[in-house]
Amino acid sequence: MITVALSKGRLFDDFIKYLEEKNLDKYSGVLKEKSRTLYTTSGNVRFIFAKGPDVPVYVERSVADIGIVGSDTLEEDAFSYLNVSELPFGQCHFALAGPPNIERFETIASKYINIARKFFNDEQQAVSLIHLNGSVELAPILGLADGIVDIVQTGSTLRDNGLIEYQKILDVQARLIANKQTFYTKEDDIYEFLSEIGVIE
């Protein structure tokens, strides 16, 4: 049996949609079942459900053999894993955003402090960074910061909160990662699954 760690939320929904497009009902069906369970199985595959930042930890620590996670998570923190492939879903991007008519950003709020820091360092611009865990759009509305660095998919959340995108920073998409040891010790089972879902031929 192989264990696959999946990110909860938007990426999870995108993966189910991808499986449905491939007519892989034996996987999409069990993943769509509504329950409080933290894992489920289908044949020789066990799926575990985790928050995005935890997926690489489970893979790194050999709890999961492979994981599906956003490249944003991999960019933000350092993990030890095999970068197997990009996946054809989960596309979005990081952006610098804020209220209209900002001439210079001085204080930035973000969940992704390391990505924000690298961006402003590359721009040779000194800013003060504030780490928030969610609803970063609230920061410029309430005057906590004059801008944010966050993931943008459709831009509707920015528009709904009176914010605009000033600059695209980094593309984001789903990535398939693997444990450095079990990718080889369970090679046949892993390759069978990856071939079945269309990641490899």
Fold and architecture overview:
The structure is a single chain. With 201 residues, the protein is an alpha/beta fold. It folds into 2 domains: 113 residues, Periplasmic binding protein-like II (D-Maltodextrin-Binding Protein, domain 2, 3-Layer(aba) Sandwich); 80 residues, D-Maltodextrin-Binding Protein, domain 2 (3-Layer(aba) Sandwich), CATH 3.40.190.10. 32% of the residues lie in helices and 30% in strands. The protein contains 9 helices and 11 strands. The strands form 2 sheets. Strands 2-3-1-4-11-5 form a 6-stranded mixed beta sheet. A 5-stranded mixed beta sheet has the order 8-7-9-6-10. A hairpin with a 2-residue loop joins strand 2 and strand 3. Helix 1 packs antiparallel against helix 2. The radius of gyration is 19 Å and the shape is elongated. The mean pLDDT is 94.
